[in-house]
Amino acid sequence: MAKQTSQLIIVxxxxxxxxxxxCYLFERQVDNFKYIxxxxxxxxxxxxxxxxxxxxxxxxxxxxxxxxxSPAGIFLLxxxxxxxxxxxxxxxxxxxxxxxxxxxxxxxSQYYNTWVNKQEVQKDWDSHEVMxxxxxxxxxxxxxxxxxxxxxxxFGSAIxxxxxxxxxxxxxxxxxSKKQNITGLLNWIKKDSNPLxxxxxxxxxxxxx
Length: 209
Known about the structure:
The protein is 7% helix and 35% strand. The chain is mainly beta. It has one domain. Strand 2 (20-29) and strand 3 form a beta hairpin. The mean pLDDT is 93.
C-alpha cells in the first residue's frame, strides 16, 4: 500500500497515553518522501490504542467503543466534510453537512460507524454523532477509515480529523488541530495520491512501517 501512495500524514505522540502530538506531512518525490510541514494536534483524552486499519496489531491494547482513545495504526481516508458549500481547493471528495446528517455510534445498529441522512433511513440506533455541530468542531473535517473494512461491533466509530477545542483538551477518540491546519490538510490531499494516515507513539513508528 505504501508503494501506491504519494502522500503520508504521520501523527506522532511520545507514548500511548499522551493526548498531545504532532502531525507531519510528506509527499513522494521520485523514490523518496519529502517533508512538507508539521503542526500540533490533540488525540483522544486517553491517548491511543490499536485501531482497525491496514496494519498488524502488535499487542492486545485495542481500541473499543467509548474508551476515549484515538486509533493507532495505518488508515485510509474517507470523505472530507464541513458546513460550507465548498471549502476545498483540491479534488478530495467533500460533503456539505446538514441538520439531517448523523454518524451512528450505536454498535447494535445496522448503520454502526457509517454516515446517514436521517430522512433517508429508518432509525434503528439509540446514539449518534450530529455532523452539523453547534460548537463548530465539525465545521471542517475528514473521515478516518478506522473499523470500516469490515465494521466490527464495539471496536470504535465516528473517527475524524477535525477542529480542536484548544491545544490542551483531548478528544473522545478523534485527531484534532486548529482550523487553519485542518483547512490546509483538506486542500493538500489529492485523490490520485492515495494518501495514508499513520498515527503511532514515537517508539512504534519504525516497528510497524
